[in-house]
Specification:
27% helix; 5 helices; single chain; alpha+beta; 221 residues
Length: 221
């Protein structure tokens, strides 16, 4: 039987959402004085609660960027949140954190098009990641170069699958990552877009320690 998690909410990826996400760094840079206009024109909105200093795209996912807005910054890291998980914490048997963590999950589930499961299982989370991986594969026209089950990028909860693709300039890493907002108690299911320069060449599929370091170098910021 699959291990349980307290709650899962997610918004399915689409091919167009992935294609847009990959294309943001190569778009013309938006001057600071026209950022508000550009965000409004795209049908996006600012988001400061679910993820600090982030944006909700026209596809309904939450996007966070080192550059604040993702347009025209090829050297910045970007992440697209497609799911949020409240894992079971073995050190919180009495669920002391639930009075403030469940409301955060409620806020995610209130977003248009987001689907919630409470309770859920790790298999449910893996199904969300697997469907997202199929979408990324269709968008890029290639399967992942590496697939590894790891908890290197999470703070609490079980290991889950990370999948890695590369474009000529960027790494795309799909998998779980600690939600650094509520101190790592929650876990994002996210797609990261990061310059390949963040780490050296992709390690061998058999070198799990090196792969964990490579993933962390690209997604942890």
């Amino acid at each position: 039987m699959s291990a349980r998690v307290h709650a899962l909410v997610h918004k399915p990826l689409t091919v167009s959402a992935v294609a847009d996400f990959i294309g943001y760094p190569s778009e013309p840079r938006v001057p600071e004085e026209t950022v508000e206009e550009a965000v409004e024109r795209r049908g996006w909105s600012w988001e400061h609660s679910l993820v600090c200093d982030s944006l909700v795209t026209d596809h309904g996912h939450v996007l966070c960027s080192e550059s604040y807005v993702p347009f025209g910054f090829p050297d910045a890291r970007h992440l697209l949140v497609l799911g949020e998980v409240y894992p079971i914490d073995e050190n919180d048997d009495e669920m002391r954190n639930s009075p403030w963590l469940f409301p955060i999950m409620d806020d995610w589930q209130k977003q248009p098009g987001w689907i919630g499961q409470r309770p859920a299982t790790v298999d449910d989370c893996e199904s969300v990641l697997a469907r997202a991986a199929q979408t990324v594969t269709v968008s890029l026209g290639s399967t992942p170069e590496r697939t590894i089950v790891s908890d290197a990028a999470t703070a609490v909860g079980p290991a889950m699958t990370h999948r890695i693709w590369r474009t000529p300039t960027h790494a795309l890493v799909l998998g779980p990552h600690a939600d650094n907002g509520p101190y790592g108690y929650l876990t994002y299911l996210q797609l990261s877009l990061t310059p390949l320069a963040c780490a050296p060449d992709l390690p061998s599929a058999h070198d799990t320690d090196a792969l964990n370091r490579w993933i962390t170098a690209h997604v942890d910021w």
